[in-house]
Design goal:
Layout (H helix, E strand, L loop, with lengths): L3 H4 L5 H18 L9 E3 L10 E7 L6 H15 L2 E5 L2 H9 L12 E4 L3 H15 L11 E2 L7 E6 L4 E3 L5 E6 L5 E3 L31 H4 L1 E10 L2 E8 L6 E8 L12 H17 L7 E7 L2 E7 L6 H7 L6 H20 L2 E2 L8 E3 L5 E3 L6 E2 L28 H17 L11 H4 L5 H12 L8 H15 L1
Antiparallel strand pairs: 1-3, 2-4, 2-6, 3-4, 5-6, 7-8, 8-9, 10-11, 11-12, 12-14, 13-14, 15-18, 16-17
Length: 477
């Protein structure tokens, strides 16, 4: 039998405390300038000798090695007098690397260096490359890499806050063109520079290393639409050319070091884990997406699954101007409960039961997707997962309930409540379903109350709920 540590990496609280304290000590030593309400700390104040724009150097890190990175590079940068900044806390580093809070283009930007001249930028890039060689870190989107195996990235941009006011009142980042006029500072440019600037970092092709060989991403799976994009990886709709006729598929990318957590799990780990969960669910006869293939490329892991044609249940709710009929809401609730019961019977806690993870397939039934956060029923995951709106409030959880089927049952209650009322449950007020919507059957109101308000171990099973909601729906016909 597997142990918890074989399923999920374990977390050492003392090590976490040490990493946080070490980071703060290094910031206090090397980054004394801490503007109020800023997520950054600076090595010194800006001076008249500092240019308005130029070549920025970015040094990425994970929350586990950020302190090591800062310790390696801060001394040489301070000795040079070069201005640089770093993230103010490792908690903020985690938020940056997710790509969700500060934008996808910010991923990995633990330290930003502002060279005073192009010559200094070239010299620093080489020195920092030597100092950080071999460190693990996520790639910096849209930046160019100093060398194929380097941990130094660069782009041309503004060093000071410049902005262009648009007619609608929205400001966009700016820099000055060769004539001194403000122009957009495009953070997502593939060339990492404006057209009028030459790239001084380009190296001879003989030093670039061998060209990458043919990969499944070039020969077999052609991604053409991004469905999601964040630090841990991307999700793409693609064409599967391995079969005739070719078919649509979903290509899920798990990036090495992407959104690396305190426990050492990254995007690569999560996609591998989801593959295992999907195969187990399929073996149990559940309508999870079929797994077509998987492969590893440049340290990243790719999972190819069935593309399920149809809209999500959340998209259906968003598209409709009126709530679902009570009968329809009960039918969907019963179907979701039956699926959840099957997932639990197969030995898994889903931890992400919500309307956007159900696809309305062409044949009219729901199919569940997205299982990278699932964990075995008998091996709870020590790390939280899921969407806050569908997770139990803090006062309803506890050690025994964490990552348990009882959390899934709460999520089920929140989904049913949303289907019937058009709103998410508000825990600051009593649940008064009969006042929110007339005609909801008494048994449905009782089910929702038990799922959302009862102690975890007193929540009814998903199988029982499926049968009760199906009966309530039938009585309305």
């Amino acid at each position: 039998m597997r142990t918890d540590s074989e399923y999920f990496p374990q977390i050492d609280d003392d090590q976490l405390k040490y990493l946080r304290e070490t980071w703060q000590e290094l910031c206090d030593r090397y980054l004394p300038v801490a503007p109020a309400d800023s997520m950054w700390r600076y090595s010194r104040a800006r001076g008249p000798q500092d240019p308005e724009q130029g070549w920025k150097l970015h040094l990425p890190a994970t929350i586990l090695n950020a302190a090591t990175l800062l310790e390696k590079v801060a001394g040489p940068l301070v000795e040079r007098g070069t201005l640089f900044k770093a993230i103010a806390s490792l908690q903020e580093m985690s938020r940056i690397n997710s790509g969700l809070y500060h934008g996808y283009s910010q991923i990995g930007k633990c330290i930003t260096v502002y060279p005073r001249t192009t010559e200094e930028a070239l010299a620093l890039a080489d020195e920092l490359h030597q100092l950080t060689y071999g460190m693990s870190a996520p790639s910096v989107p849209f930046d160019l890499r100093f060398r194929p195996d380097s941990n130094v990235y660069y782009r041309y941009g503004a060093f000071r806050r410049l902005a262009i006011e648009q007619p609608d009142g929205v400001s966009i980042p700016a820099l000055r063109d060769q004539e001194g006029n403000l122009a957009p500072d495009v953070r997502a440019s593939a060339s990492a520079k404006p057209d009028w600037v030459e790239n001084p970092f380009l190296i001879p092709s003989s030093e670039r290393g061998a060209e990458s060989t043919a990969s499944p991403l070039k020969t077999t799976y052609r991604a053409f639409r991004a469905l999601a994009q964040r630090g841990k990886g991307g999700v793409y709709q693609a064409l599967d050319l391995s079969v005739q006729p070719m078919r649509f598929c979903v290509l899920k990318e798990g990036r090495r070091h992407g959104e690396l957590g305190w426990d050492g799990r990254d995007g690569c780990w999560r996609v591998r884990h989801e593959e295992r969960v999907l195969r187990r669910l399929q073996a149990s006869g559940l309508p999870a997406p079929d797994v077509y293939a998987s492969f590893e490329l440049e340290g990243n892991y790719y999972l190819v699954t069935e593309f399920i044609e149809g809209e999500s249940l959340q998209e259906l709710l968003n598209r409709r101007r009126r709530r679902l009929s009570i009968c329809q809401a009960l039918r969907y609730g019963s179907e979701i409960a039956a699926l959840l019961s099957g997932i639990h019977s197969a030995g898994w806690v889903w931890r992400d039961c919500k309307p956007s993870n159900f696809i309305l397939a062409r044949r009219g039934y729901l199919r569940p997707i997205d299982f990278e956060g699932a964990c075995p029923v008998d091996h709870p995951d020590p790390q939280p997962w899921g969407t806050p709106a569908f997770a139990p409030p803090a006062d309803q959880t506890g050690h025994e309930a964490r990552s348990s089927i009882y959390d899934d049952l709460y999520s089920l209650g929140a989904v049913i409540y949303l289907l019937l009322t058009g709103n998410l449950p508000d825990h600051t007020e009593r649940l008064t379903l009969q006042k929110i919507r007339r005609g909801i059957p008494v048994e449905a109101r009782e089910i929702i109350t038990e799922l959302l308000l009862a102690p975890p171990r007193q929540r009814p099973s998903a199988g029982l709920i499926a049968r009760q909601l199906a009966a309530a729906s039938a009585n309305l016909r």
